[in-house]
Amino acid sequence: MKKTRLLEIIREEIQTALKEIPMVDGPADAGIGDDGKLTKKPLKNALEDAINAIKKENPTADIKKITSILTNKGSRTSEETSSEVKEKLKDVDDAIDSQERLFGVDKAPELLKKFTNKPKDDPEYLELSNTITKFIDKEKDFSDNLQPNQTSKFVKKTLEKSSTPEKELSDEEKEIEAAVGTDSTAQELAKTSDDDIKTFNKGLVFIKKYKDDKPVIDAYLKKAKEEYELPNKMLDDLKLAAGRKVE
Asked: 43-71 b/e with 16+ CB inside 10 Å = b?
């Protein structure tokens, strides 16, 4: 897929998501917690916990039923809702509140820039920044109601993910995982996103396979830095795995 088309798809996805407030997952799922700090994907995490609690209590609950419980304000006070599920629904509402706090702060665009780690001329960042500015200027109103359409899609995605068995690691990947778990990289992984961790692990497998092919390794290391934007510690470990010096 050409890069220009990829950017077009990203813009379309963002525009669609921004029409459905609050933001479920995606780059705009950020908020300001009670401690005043920026939180990453608060609504995604809260919804996943709520969905798991509902399924645990009612294993036969389908997408429609779960979506109804999540989006219906009456679920929060209904006698039919267990205390455990109510607690998780409260966490969902708190996550929505944290988003609303972010979208009402004058410095929100700058905070979001740090969150997305995108340059100011990046189309994705510009779209998000402009949208937040509209909330700040009261050109848009923030709703505290989850939208059924986006919630239903997220419920479906979450259920599919939980029902998919984890892929068993190959012997080669197990060796790499064991090696990584014994050094300082483990500490880095603990505070790094799942996507970065997956990219890093795949990178180790790739480097082990093509270690003797210098042009291929050079190209991959450049891609890991510029396109994947892996943390510096991970980049250094990839270089060491390839037998390169680390400055």
From this structure: bbbbbbbbbebbbeeeeebebeebbbbbb
Indicate the range of 6-15, 57-66, 68-77, 213-222 predicted with least confidence.
6-15
Reading the block at residue 153, the tokens are 């899609």
Count Cβ neighbours within 10 Å for each residue of 147-167 and write b for 16 or more, e otherwise.
Answer: eeebbbbbbeebbeeeeeeee
Per DSSP, what are the bridge partners of residue 30?
A: 40
Sign of the torsion angle spanned by Cα atoms 134, 139, 144, 148: negative
Task: Report the percentage of the chain scoring pLDDT > 90.
Answer: 23
Q: What is the pTM of this model?
A: 0.55
| CA–CA distances in Å: residue 156 to residues 16, 150, 197, 241 | 18, 10, 25, 39
pLDDT at 17 over 60: no
Instruction: Return the number of other C-beta atoms located less than 10 Å from residue 212's C-beta.
Output: 9
d(CA 120, CA 113) in angstroms, rounded, equals: 7
**DSSP-derived pairing of the beta strands 38-40 and 30-32:** antiparallel
Return d(Cα 63, Cα 86) in angstroms, integer. Answer: 18
pLDDT given for residue 108 in this prediction: 63
